[in-house]
């Protein structure tokens, strides 16, 4: 893929609904294409690169052509901010997917040109690639995937090595573990033990899955409480938090 273009899925303004930044206004840039197939994914259309993408302004949605040239992207994102009346202030740009690291040439070329704070949301598919990208972001939100959650690409996500890379770079990193009712506490604990081993003291958000049609159900509150107590011996800080934006009826 050319470093001078990017395949997008959508761009929109909303409240961050997950992790450390919950409740803050973010400008979301969702990239198209992902090698993973999470069975609870709420944006499966972003698995593949599409011919068109959506630019969500305050009062209308525009259908745009892919791919987008680097020089064209900032003016398009500025249109989103201007439609909401932003003047000068730039909210955090949340680069998400899909899997952003799958378009690393774009990230390396374009992120240094963005005049505001950036958060990278990634499943950690490549520690080497993340090591190149992380100097150009202000924070990382790392999705730690439970192996049974992946229908495809189970061997591609390597969050442990990615955590080591963000620590080396001194970039603030939060970890999210999406969980479902049909997974065992042993599966959850295995992931959290690995996390505690490579990054003791890390704050990890255990996030009950948001139900989608035909997808897995979220764990019961009783199971989440039981897990939080059972995992209290691990050298990590555990917080349980569901996605906020679905409950508010926003994107």
Molecular structure report:
Strand 7 (92-96), helix 2 (104-110) and strand 8 (118-122) form a beta-alpha-beta unit. This protein has a single domain, classed as Alpha-Beta Barrel (TIM Barrel). A ten-stranded mixed beta sheet has the order 5-4-2-3-7-8-9-10-11-12, covered by helices on one side. Strands 1-6 form a two-stranded antiparallel ribbon. The protein is an alpha/beta fold. The mean pLDDT is 92. It contains seven helices and twelve strands. The longest helix has 14 residues, at 70-83. Helix content is 27%, strand content 25%. Helix 3 packs parallel to helix 4.
Topology of this structure?
Blueprint: E1 5-6, E2 8-15, E3 25-31, E4 52-56, E5 61-65, E6 68-69, H1 70-83, E7 92-96, H2 104-110, E8 118-122, H3 127-133, E9 139-143, H4 159-169, E10 172-179, H5 185-198, E11 203-208, H6 221-230, E12 237-240, H7 245-248
Parallel strand pairs: 2-4, 3-7, 7-8, 8-9, 9-10, 10-11, 11-12
Antiparallel strand pairs: 1-6, 2-3, 4-5
Helix pairs in contact: 3-4
């Amino acid at each position: 893929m050319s470093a001078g273009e990017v395949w997008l899925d959508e761009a929109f303004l909303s409240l961050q609904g997950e992790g450390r930044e919950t409740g803050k206004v973010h400008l979301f840039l969702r990239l198209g294409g992902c090698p993973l197939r999470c069975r609870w994914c709420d944006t499966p259309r972003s698995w593949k690169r599409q011919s068109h993408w959506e630019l969500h302004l305050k009062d209308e949605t525009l259908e745009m052509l892919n791919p987008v040239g680097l020089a064209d992207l900032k003016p398009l994102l500025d249109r989103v901010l201007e439609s909401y009346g932003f003047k000068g202030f730039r909210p955090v740009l949340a680069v998400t997917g899909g899997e952003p690291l799958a378009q690393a040439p774009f990230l390396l070329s374009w992120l240094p040109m963005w005049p505001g704070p950036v958060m990278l949301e990634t499943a950690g598919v490549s520690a080497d690639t993340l090591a190149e990208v992380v100097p150009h972001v202000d924070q990382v939100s790392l999705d730690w995937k439970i192996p049974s959650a992946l229908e495809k690409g189970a061997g591609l996500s390597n969050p442990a090595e990615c955590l080591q890379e963000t620590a080396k770079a001194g970039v603030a990193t939060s970890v999210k573990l999406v969980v479902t009712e049909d997974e065992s506490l042993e599966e959850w604990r295995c992931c959290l033990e690995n996390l505690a081993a490579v990054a003791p003291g890390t704050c990890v958000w255990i996030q009950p899955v948001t139900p989608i049609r035909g997808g897995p159900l979220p764990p019961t509150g009783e199971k989440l409480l039981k897990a939080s107590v059972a995992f209290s011996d691990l050298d990590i800080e555990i917080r349980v938090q569901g996605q906020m934006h679905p409950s508010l009826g926003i994107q």
